[in-house]
Amino acid sequence: MALITDSNEAVRILKSGGLVALPTETVYGLGANALDEQAVAKVFKAKNRPSFDPLIVHVASVDQARLIAEVSDEAAELFERFSPGPLTLILPKKQIVPDLTTSGHTTVAVRIPNHPITLEVIRNSGLSIAAPSANPFGYTSPTTAAHVIEQLGDRIDAVLDGGPCEVGIESTILELTATPKILRLGGLTLESIQESIGNVNIESSSSNPKAPGMLSAHYNPGVPLRLFESLDELLAQYNSVNKSSIGLLIMGDGPSGINIYNLSTSENDLEAASRLFTGLHQLKTKGFSEIWAHYLPEKGLGRAINDRLKRAAH
User: Counting CB atoms within 10 angstroms of each CB, which of 153, 192, 242, 292 has the fewest?
Assistant: First the structure.
């Protein structure tokens, strides 16, 4: 695998049917031409991803989205309000999109990422780019180029280094049914969506997923993760065990040390989200046999963080 900084090289690889890990504001995505079934098959193989789990297609504009999907007025308004950004919409697909990209569904997941380098790659290539998280299926998502290299190694052609991801958790996935449904909590909060379109249901688990991130077990950090209801409950248990083998992932006014990763001492959920996967990666890399974490307040980005922790601990 090559570590590259030239977006033109990424364009060349993608147009030739190769795989490039691309930076986005959420996590690094494993990019391939979404309309090239052979390239898409390489994504599934590199990630060891089951074929029933559909991919998100990244585009640079609403006009480009219309080339691959039926974009209603409501969908266009949501794109205009929240994109580029961490919103993915489930839309009726056009025939040009291979069934493998959508795992056989008649819908396709579409988003406009908020990262200048990847938007440049999409525009300069003219491609719609399928880009699930650039990591082995079911494991912790990568938020730096180093995470991609560590997890995927030579399974892909290149990683385009765009620095650390600003949001740090995946996009929110929304299906515009009669009562809109969130299929995956993510970087756009429930509150923001409700302010825009009113009542929204949350349907975030399925064994036959219409969108990524819906399986009950996901985001595995590679060591057992134990969850507590609160920081106080975690610390009460922690004080009575052998601390040397346990890494702590906490938020707020807690202890510090080599085995403790604090997502945000000021309890800022934006900061916590941006540091979540990095914290899990670091604690695993330090060799702890177990990671302990606690739920955050169930509001704002705390909902999406709790969702990731719950699936990682499953």
Answer: 242
